[in-house]
Design brief:
Two copies of one chain form a homodimer. Chain A is of the alpha+beta class. Chain A contains 14 helices and 23 strands. Helix content of chain A is about 35%, strand content about 25%.
Chain lengths: ~475, ~475
């Protein structure tokens, strides 16, 4: 008989949220650390989660007319430097290749921190006329930014993402695209990940390097910190001018085209963990969970139990569900804890007494509630419960967002909220970067976004008191 | 009226095969060159082809129990050096990162040329007991090898691939896995890509750096050169010893586990091009083609034509086919040439006369043959023709392989074949590396593999005349 490895305890969220997070990513077997700081290994469970995210998002990108490409990993130093704002934003945090094949390179290459300049170089090759526009491209890859402090998923030197890059004949079309893809992210976050979002526009100081405008979806974590979860950038024709990308329009006149880019990364996995997890570990939304249902035979040595569990799994799979049978030799109690740690949304228990009564036991990961269902209606019962769990997770996250969103009319009030409760603080803001900086100095909070859903909280800036009709979100950030 | 871009001519294969290849990859819009030598851009059409390859292979990997992971991009110099043979093979051709975030690194990092050492470091963390074995992992990523001469797909500094890495409790199990995955590659190449393969074992001098044994699938291109199209390596316990990976077996004794790795890359796209293409451009096997059927309306301005073409596309899509409607304003002739260049297996033409007669015209890319089908039976006719094309491509490639495979009993005979006909040369071989080297010097051909399907061609080595019962394939290689 094999010795039974105990499922180890994790730190409670209220005791130390950061340690709870670290415990979960390790003990749910999401990541392992490599010997290069800030570079992690996505283990099979995290990778399966990322594959589900990829499959869903990739489908949404293709439905909106986008095509995948793969760009090179390397950017020559001179190419990175072509757009002034862009290089200022990224050059300080890139990794440099100086030698290849045993010889020093004539020009340093950086590992892409993002691929705008590579797309621009390519556009210049392939775009001549209005007939070549738009190009609606996306790539799935990893990028490298040499961060000083790192945390798995949230901030790492290498991370996996998709970066969409599009180029259009008109400013209006590019602006539409920028918002269309922000909405794709918002829909995906809410419908697939059960993560409610605040959609809005970044302030000038928080814009992507080289962008005219950056839009964001901001999420609220369980510890009251904000997570920027996806961004969409409008570049105007700035990159086109820097890279001399031009096309002849229908009147045979040379024009500069307009560009966008938009990205969502494995950081979102950190968001899923911190939105839904509890003191027993991960909780994964059913629509994105690698394993939606785990079937655990109880008293598996008794005649018929294992066969019945296998048959049930086969039926659930045939119904289109992602199912795992845990027929290992650990005790049911160990298995319950293990799959709770891994956040499997629904557990099905099946033992001799259940078989005798032609039923199975269903346990929801989020509430811990158990119920029975007739064995011959298991598919329907399981599918319905998964939908309920998905809806409950979104509701709970919405409640968390609502309860952690505060309103402040003065800097002092805002400072008090920041110190005592965290979360989002909504205020009016005059639009001046000096006020934004002062708010950060006094409260520690940075601007999150100017939300599309504006609320009339007053008519004066929280900081300087100037007249304004602009409302903004602030928060501590990951 | 827009000016019509002519489909440009490509070099004929018989005139200059290398130039034909370069023309095809550019003009079928598979790749674009970046400003970094040897690093190309996979354009949407090539990427869609690669995605189909990925989807099929990934499914085969999962069916055989493998899980995907993602490993870091970087390998510290000290980690690369842990296995002596491995570092000797790869260190001369890696790219080195020396600076990150504006500072010199304390230890150089190379961009992974392959990930054995990263997997080994991870295995050492996660494997303690027999219960942790086997681990059957795969990753999809790009790797970097600083090649001196480069050609798109065939030899590039960055290329995309999958690398499988597995670790097992016993030698036998690892050996089985090595051959299982070679067979997966062979099945995939023949069934999906219509590329017949020679399966066999590499000679000692051609083994992967650090492997006890390397198996390969070798394909014959249309110009008589061989293409190594997928390899599977058995490592014994050499890496486990170098990285101190140990597990306690069921008797509580410490043991070293056994490893494999296996890879197939975007090089296979070069293989598809050079196996099936003709002087009009690409020919893609239907099972893997991004577009299986292009529907081209003829006299599209005539009433009903465009609507009928759209309706036909919808029906073909509903039948599970990958369909494109080309409703652009170019002439049908231009479109025919364009989709021939891109290798779309089947073209459907639909004009007013066809509609009047309730039929459509079907043109096969490989033969150029046209036939008509009743419009209301288009799905069946199209699906059947695609199967026929797939089978014909495999037959044609088999014929090419057979016609380009020769037998030689002496070095002089072999030299003559090498100079006049190329292709594969089958001979007997004593197994001595010195003979292998002499054959290469005299004929220019390198050993391809010792095939599993041995044939009794004689009983003496083609080079030294020593007694032997081993048969080997030789060839010029890409």
């Amino acid at each position: 008989m094999a010795t039974e490895k105990k499922v180890e305890q994790i730190t409670a969220r209220d005791v130390d949220f950061a340690q709870w997070y670290t415990d979960v990513v390790k003990k749910a077997e999401l990541i392992d650390y490599s010997s290069v700081k800030g570079c992690v290994i996505l283990r099979p469970y995290a990778h399966a989660l990322w594959e589900n995210i990829q499959r869903t998002l990739d489908g949404m990108f293709k439905e909106t007319g986008h095509e995948n490409v793969s760009m090179p990993l390397f950017i020559p130093e001179s190419l990175l430097q072509k757009e002034k704002d862009h290089v200022e934003g990224f050059a300080p945090e890139v990794a440099w290749i100086t030698h290849g094949g045993g010889e020093p390179l004539t020009e340093r290459l950086c590992v892409r921190p993002t691929s705008e300049v590579l797309f621009c170089e390519h556009y210049a090759h392939i775009i001549q006329s209005w007939r070549d526009l738009p190009k609606l491209y996306n790539q799935w890859c990893s990028v490298v930014r040499w961060e000083k402090t790192t945390r798995p998923f949230l901030r790492s030197r290498e991370f996996w993402w998709q970066e969409g890059h599009t180029i259009h004949a008109t400013r209006e079309e590019a602006e539409e695209e920028t918002l269309r893809m922000l909405n794709v992210y918002a829909t995906f976050a809410e419908e697939s990940l059960a993560m409610p979002v605040i959609k809005g526009q970044k302030t000038a100081s928080e814009r992507f390097a080289g962008a005219e405008n950056t839009y964001t979806i901001e999420c609220m974590m369980h510890d009251g910190q904000a997570l920027q979860s996806g961004t969409s950038h409008f570049f105007g024709d700035g990159f086109a001018r820097a890279f001399n990308i031009q096309f002849t329009d229908r009147n045979n006149t040379l024009q500069y085209p307009f560009q966008t880019s938009w990205g969502l990364s494995t950081r979102i996995i950190g968001g899923i963990i911190m939105t839904h997890g509890d003191d027993n570990g991960l909780i994964l939304p059913p629509r994105i969970a690698p394993v939606q249902v785990v079937v655990i035979p109880v008293a598996a040595h008794k005649p018929g139990v294992l066969d019945a569990a296998r048959a049930l799994c086969a039926r659930l799979r045939a119904a289109g569900l992602r199912v795992r049978l845990d027929d290992g030799d650990q005790s049911p109690g160990w298995k319950f804890a293990e799959h709770e740690m891994k956040g499997v949304p629904l557990r099905v228990e099946l033992g001799p007494r259940d078989l005798a009564e032609n039923r199975c036991v269903l346990a929801c990961r989020d509430t811990g509630a158990k119920q029975t269902a007739p064995l011959d209606q298991a598919e329907t019962a399981v599918a319905a419960l998964l939908e309920e769990i998905q809806a409950r997770l979104l509701d709970a996250a919405r409640t968390n967002l609502r309860e952690r969103t505060h309103t402040a009319a003065s800097l002092e009030e805002m400072r008090h909220i920041a110190q005592t409760r965290g979360g989002f603080v909504k205020t009016m803001w005059c639009g001046d970067g000096a006020c934004e900086e002062k708010v950060r100095e006094v409260t520690g909070m940075k601007s999150r976004c100017i939300p599309f859903a504006q609320e009339p909280l007053g008519d004066t800036c929280v900081c300087c008191g100037a007249k304004t009709d602009t409302m903004i979100y602030w928060g501590f950030q990951y």
